[in-house]
Amino acid sequence: MIRWPPVFVWQSMYAAAQISIRPAQARANHPGKGRMTDLTDRPIASVESRKLSDLLVQVGQSRDRAAFRVLFDHFAPRIRAFLLNRRLTPALADDLTQDVMLAIWRRASGYDPAKAGASTWIYTIARNQHIDHFRKVQRASRMDETDPSLQPVPTPAADDLFEQAEAADTVGLALQTLSPDQRQVVDMAFTEGLSHSEIAERLELPLGTVKSRIRLAMGKLKTTLGDMA
Known about the structure:
single chain, mainly alpha, Rna Polymerase Sigma Factor, Chain: A, Arc Repressor Mutant, subunit A, 2 domains, 9 helices, elongated, disordered N terminus
C-alpha cells in the first residue's frame, strides 16, 4: 500500500518548487532583475476595470455607440440584479435599469477615471435612481387627495362655453373697428402683458403717444361693445 506524505510535506514541496521556479522566470523575462513585472502578473479584475473605464470615457468623449453597447451588455443585468436585491418588483427593476443606462449615456461626459472606477461611478447612479424613486413614492403616499389644489378644474357647462364663445366673437368684432395703430398697442398691452413704457420702447414711440392710443382705443371699444350688447 502506498503511504502518502503528510500534508505539511506536500506544502513544503510546493513552496520549494515555487521558489525554484520564480527566479528563473524573472531572469528570463527581465535579465538582471529579481521580480516579474509582466502584464499577465497583474490582477485580472484590475485589467477589466480599466477596460470598462476606457469604454465609458469613449462614450463621454465621442458618444461611441459600440462602446456603450458593451457597457450596456455588461452592466444592465448586474444593475437589474442589484435593484432586485433591494426588493423592487421585476417590472420596476426593468424600468429603473433603463433609466440608469440612459443616465449613463447622458452623463458619461462628466466621468473622470482618475476619481472613480467605472463600476463605482455607475452603481452610484443606480443607487441614486433608486433613492429618488423611493422618495417619490414616499411623497405620493403622503399626498392629500382631497387637497383642492390637486382637484381637476371643472369643465364649464355647455351654456357657459357658448356664452364665452359669443363674448370672444363680440370682442373680436369690436377690435376690428380700431385703427391698426390702436389695435397694435392694445394687443401688446393685453395679449403680451407689456407696460406702457415697454410698448413705447419696443415701438420707439413717445410714452405719451402710446398712452393716448390706448386711451382712445379703450374708449372706442366700450362704445362699440355697448352698441353690440
